[in-house]
Amino acid sequence: MKFTPFNSGLLLGAVSVMMTIILYLMGPQTFAQGWISFALLIISIALIIYTGIQYRNTLNEGFLSYQKAYVFLLIVTVVSLPISSLSRVAIMSLDPQFSEQVVEKSLEATMEVMSKLGLPDDQVEQAAERARGDFEEANSLKGALMSLVYALPFMLIINLLLALAIRKNKPEFA
Q: Is there a contact between 104 and 111 (Cβ–Cβ < 8 Å)?
């Protein structure tokens, strides 16, 4: 495979779709767990770094400036984020019962945390209703588009750091 920025974005998007399908097959309890999102972020970052290094090694004798590394990452992000978001919306739209179960599991976890914090029952109930609306919206097309709007600045900042891992400057006196 040729590791161009566009191809790398498609690869990352495809891996994200596969991970979403695997989580779907594992059930709503797994899909709703917060640490899963963090684990998927780590896997995505590792794959981004791998494809970035492969891209660097195919150009200019294995050297890539910080600027070009950042542009590579920008393209990968712009290609892969919509694929990832749309795959989640597709699953939630195709299986509304699963979507409702994910919302319920997420809500249960949220209420458990609030109860452990010692909040009064009426505050827990009010927060639960707001959380239900938030969870339901997050699994809609509108929610996916909004998550893209919120995720993009975060990923742009992460990309600033990842570009450091991918770049490799030519030695000045070689």
A: no
Say which amino acid occupies 93.
Answer: S
- Does the reported pTM lie above 0.90? no
Pick from 72, 75, 76, 87: nearest CA to 147: 87
Count of CB atoms situated within 10 Å of the CB of 24: 19
Q: Helix, strand or coil for residue 71? A: helix
Q: What is the DSSP string of 153-167?
A: HHHHHHHHHHHHHH-
Cα(11)–Cα(120) distance, rounded to whole angstroms?
Answer: 47
Residues sharing a CB contact under 8 Å with residue 56, sequence separation 6 or more, in sequence order: 62, 63, 64, 69, 166, 167, 168
Give the list of residues 6+ apart from residue 6 with CB closer than 8 angstroms, or none: 75, 79
Instruction: For tokens 């989580």, name the residue.
Output: 23
Q: Between 1 and 30, whose confidence is greater?
A: 30
User: Region 120-143: what's the mean pLDDT?
Assistant: 74
Q: Rounded to an integer, what distance in angstroms lies between the CA atom of residue 154 and that of residue 157? A: 5
d(CA 149, CA 133): 19
| Cβ atoms 41, 62 nearer than 8 A | no
